[in-house]
Amino acid sequence: MMRRLEEFLVGNVTFPLTSTLYNRRGILPTFRNLKKSEFYSPEQMSRMQRERLKNLVLYAYQWIPFYRKRFKDVGLVPEDIRTLKDLENIPAITRQEVIDYHHDMVDSRFLQQALGADVSGRATGAPIFMAPFRQDRLVRNTSSGSTGAPTTFYEDGSRTALNWAHELRLRSWFGLNPGAREGRMARISTDYLPGARDIRMRRRLWNQLVLPGVNLGPEDFQVCYEKLKEFKPRVLWGFTSALAGLAGFLREQNLDPGPVRPELIITWAAPLYEHEERTLREVFDCQVTNIYGAREVGHIAMRCPEKNFHVNEEHILIEQDRSSLDGSQAGELLVTTLDITVMPFLRYRMGDLGRLARKECACGRTLLQIEELLGRTGEIFRTRDGRMISPNFWCRTFMNPALSGRIVRFQVVYKKDDEIEVRIVRGDGYNEETRTGLEKFLSGNFGQQMKVYITPVDEILPQVSGKYQMVVNEASVATESTG
Ligand SMILES: [Zn+2]
């Protein structure tokens, strides 16, 4: 009862109120609107999108030098964009363009503030504390992407507010109300200061326990475990790598997950591979979901209890690039942020391959679905005979009962279009039979034309972020640079 009351107060009073003070406005009203529009008919939704797109295009043309130039280059004026289909006449934006022209992509009335944010001394990737979001001040943010070259972008708090409204929507799909206790593994560990004012405040006013989420070692996981045991969150939110790492740690150390058993795990910032999801379900025995998005554009799609990815269509217009269609009918995803913000994105190349589908979902929501999210374009391997191998193929291979437990970790290196190296760290149960079994499976799958070989290694190290790179694509470095 006390807990219910606490949740209610946090969810309806202290969280929205303090957020508003720090320029993250309208979280609850947006959330309430989302709860209605998720059942809109496709016609209603597309009418709303058309209206928002019209306003966005007018705004971008008037105030953002980059888009005005882009429109002029292809001979368009805002009035030419009347339908969602017309949008295809605007060339898509690449990640490299954002790196090169980010100042031109900001509303020109806010350029001075953007330049001010550049020299504010916040390091790349450092967390944003609350204060900088005060009225009309821009914050510089960066997104590292999968290839390491950071893109710079600016926000005024509205994108963050929208992300939170979307997260409230996602929790509601799993029966959790605003204000439900949440453990959040997201901070960069070197910046994580347990006594920091910001962290204490989040705990008290937002029911949120902030924990480190990057570069985690055994001691960090132990700290997270102790704190979570005491805090007992109903939602556990974090980088996919951090949460999967925590689950693996509890299992290895034989620690009891009982006291930390949340009702819902939300993974973010990376695809949730099947083997990671299985570990999370097995260790925590709860529901697991995933948010697909990027820092620049926010939360794009979220997975419902029926395991379908629904696009946040009210604020995100998503397209499938027709020029990159292949045999599986998947294409690169392009995103347009429909809100008027200081730095909107029109047709931004996400570097991910997926397939969109308008179909019924047993959850009843009518939002567009990303039927298959195949992964980063750079992680997908095309064989000479035109087949596409997505990272999930390898997850499934190594989840095979004959292999799991015998191989501790694996990494696939695509050397050339006809050569694949599979690096493995052998576990206790590994023997000659495991090796011949794997070889047989691989040659059965790839045939004689493909050279596939297994290299046992002592260890496979994570990237700086803490994420294990499952697939290294040396065969198509050129396409990776767009991702
Ligand atoms: Zn659904």
Task: Sum up the structure in keywords.
483 residues, eleven-stranded mixed beta sheet, globular, disordered C terminus, alpha/beta, binds zinc ion, 23% strand
How is this structure best described in words?
This protein is of the alpha/beta class. Helix content is 35%, strand content 23%. It contains 14 helices and 19 strands. The strands form 4 sheets. The protein has an 11-stranded mixed sheet with strand order 4-3-5-6-7-8-9-13-12-11-10, sandwiched between helices. β8 and β9 form a beta hairpin. The longest helix has 22 residues, at 42-63. The relative contact order is 0.11. Mean pLDDT is 87; it is low at 477-483. The structure holds zinc ion (ZN). Residues 304, 306, 308, 310, 361, 363, 365 line the site of zinc ion (ZN).
**Outline:** globular
Distance between the termini: 48 Å
Low-confidence parts lasting 5 or more residues at pLDDT below 50?
477-483
Mean pLDDT: 87
What is the count of DSSP helices, taking H or I runs of 4+ residues? 14
Beta-strand segment tally: 19
* Helix-and-strand structural type: alpha/beta
Taking all Cα atoms into account, the compactness measure Rg is 23 Å
Bound small molecules, deduplicated: zinc ion
- Strands side by side in the biggest sheet: 4-3-5-6-7-8-9-13-12-11-10
Percent strand equals 15-25%
Helix content: 25-40%
Oligomerization state: single chain
Major sheet attributes: 11 strands, mixed
